[in-house]
Design goal:
The protein is an alpha/beta fold and about 400 residues long. It contains twelve helices and twelve strands. The strands form three sheets. Strands 1-11-12-10-9-6-7-8 form an eight-stranded mixed β-sheet, covered by helices on one side.
């Protein structure tokens, strides 16, 4: 199949790359991205066209793609070819201009091609370390002047003290939750009023940081678009395993966030949910940044042990802002919410059921109260992204709050 043709066999010689039209070169860069920037399985919702996330290759191609991805010769060839493409940008521009294409249009196409090639070159160079995979995500939003773009690295999973570093990989739940937040920030407690006063956001089990990074970039863009100015927002991305936290810090740095950013801060922190297990109100002395409550808490695919749901309940109970802790109307300051998105895996059905046991559904007449309840439950079905007919992945989105 064409898709499985090795780069050294499919790519034209680098010395003659400028002799091809931009459209042809765009197709080649996209082909290379399929190999070296693989998508995450199970993230395209079946009832709509997901924006900004590419579907994955068919199952029959995955083994061949993995072989190409691990071939060091082919990777080195691809890096040399992309480097040559970037170096010959001006020659490509001259060729298309000579063909009668409008100068401005030609410039725009070539610039976009070179940006894509340079981005993929960074991905290929970054994945040279065995087992690392660099991914790029683009989330479109009707509320923003530009899309939210995140680039991050997955690292190899390992087992330490009988615990696997599952946060080393980016999972479909994180992709889906990030996409949903960017599409409709008001639904997730990130309205313009909250942004203006400075939002406080916490992610539990952040892993590679996709949700936290997407939220931080969303808040930064919304703040920049506000004419009246905004207070600084804070995003706290948490996990437990040291290797996962180190990679999380790396991904935050990759996305150009710094401590001096005037609009939003994002920081990685260790958080052990079991610390909150003894007392549902949390520990007696909570250190920054957990000493102040959060407006919104997010969790994607973080229930995979029977004890996790109860630990998370106690953690959220201690850290989620209570409605009485701040004044203002719900239009300006929405009620605090914990958004939990989990896949319904056949192997973890018992763990999934514990969510509704520790967060019982609220009655229809419930108002703000002192206990955490499920306020909304939404089932979401996504294409699995492989070749099996009708293969799908189902998720559940829980909206949890005080009632």
């Amino acid at each position: 199949m064409t898709l499985l043709l090795a780069p050294s066999a499919r790519l034209p010689p680098v010395r003659s790359v400028h002799e091809h039209r931009v459209e042809y070169l765009e197709n080649l860069v996209e082909y290379l991205r399929t190999i070296y920037n693989p998508p995450v399985r199970g993230i395209r919702r079946v009832d709509r066209q997901a924006k900004g996330i590419s579907s994955g290759p068919a199952r029959e191609d995955e083994d061949g793609l993995e072989m190409l991805r691990s071939d060091e010769f082919e990777r080195a060839y691809t890096i040399r070819w992309l480097t040559g493409l970037v170096a010959r940008a001006s020659l490509i521009q001259d060729l298309n201009a000579e063909d009668g294409e409008a100068s401005g249009e030609s410039d725009g196409k070539v610039d976009a091609l070179i940006r894509e090639a340079a981005s993929l070159l960074a991905v290929c160079a970054g994945t040279a370390a065995a087992g690392n995979v660099t991914r790029r995500f683009t989330f479109a939003s009707p509320h923003l002047n530009s899309p939210v773009e995140v680039q991050l690295t997955d690292i190899p999973m390992s087992v330490d003290d009988n615990a696997a570093t599952v946060g080393a990989h980016t999972w479909g739940s994180a992709c889906l939750l990030a996409e949903m937040i960017v599409e409709d920030p008001d639904r997730f407690g990130l309205s313009q009023g909250v942004v203006s006063r400075g939002a406080r956001v916490l992610e539990l089990g952040a892993g590679t940081g996709l949700v936290s990074l997407a939220v931080a970039k969303l808040l930064s863009t919304k703040s920049a678009q506000t004419s009246t100015g905004s207070a600084r927002s804070a995003v706290v991305a948490t996990d437990y395993h040291p290797a996962v936290l180190a990679n999380l810090a790396h991904n935050i740095k990759t996305n150009a966030f710094s401590d001096e950013d005037p609009l939003v801060s994002i920081s990685p922190h260790a958080l052990d949910w079991s610390d909150f297990a003894a007392d549902r109100t949390g520990r007696s002395a909570i250190e920054p940044p957990f000493d102040l409550s959060f407006d919104s808490i997010f969790g994607a695919d973080i229930i995979y042990e029977p004890t996790h749901a109860s630990w998370i309940r106690n953690c959220v109970s201690a850290l989620l802002r209570r409605p009485s802790q701040a004044g203002g109307s719900p239009d300006v300051l929405p009620f605090p919410r914990f958004h939990l998105l989990i896949p319904l895996r056949p192997t973890h059905l018992m763990e999934a059921r514990t969510v509704e046991e520790v967060f019982p559904p609220a009655s229809s007449h419930s108002g703000p109260g002192t206990d955490l309840h499920i306020l909304e439950k939404e089932n979401i079905v996504c294409e699995a992204g492989d070749a099996r007919p009708g293969s799908e992945v189902e998720y559940v989105h829980y909206v949890i709050g005080w009632a």
